[in-house]
Amino acid sequence: MGFARLSSVVAKAAKAPSQDFNARLTKAALAYVGFALKHPALFALMFEAKRRPEMLPELRTAVVGAFSHIPKILQEGQEAGKIVAGDPDRLALTIGAALHGLVAMSIEGKVKGTALKAIVPETVQHVLNGLSTNKT
Question: Which domain holds residue 34?
């Protein structure tokens, strides 16, 4: 199942307890984008299936699992006082939307001249700057 595979890839990238949350978040984001670009047809199918009202419970569980990693990392950033308080799942929507948009633009050939490996860390940093508790 695609979401289980995505979850495995992102979980592996996110597991680096010795690194700060920013580095872990960037690795998780790169893993998400890398998976999507490596498997564009599967990725598109996954998100089409996600929109169906008759989604099987197994698929729903896999979707929840796949999107659980980034909120956990954000929660660690909150606990360390690095980013604003709030529901980590809601905060993760901002990063998810940015990453999903980058993937879509790349697949459509609209991102040219710069590799997503360079753009993704910049995007994560821009989002974290917006969520930062240190606004000076």
Answer: 2-131
User: Considering the domain boundaries, does residue 136 fall inside one?
Assistant: no
Local confidence band at 15 (pLDDT 50, 70, 90 cut-offs): confident
The count of domains in the chain is: 1
Q: Report d(CA 121, CA 128) in Å as an integer.
A: 10
* Side-chain half-sphere CA neighbours of 26 within 13 A: 17
Lowest mean per-residue pLDDT among 27-31, 48-52, 71-75:
48-52
Asked if 31 contacts 9 with a C-beta cutoff of 8 angstroms, the reply is: yes
Phi first, then psi, for residue 54 (nearest 5°) are: -95, 35
pTM exceeding the 0.85 threshold for the entire prediction = yes
List the CATH number of the domain containing 98: 1.10.357.10
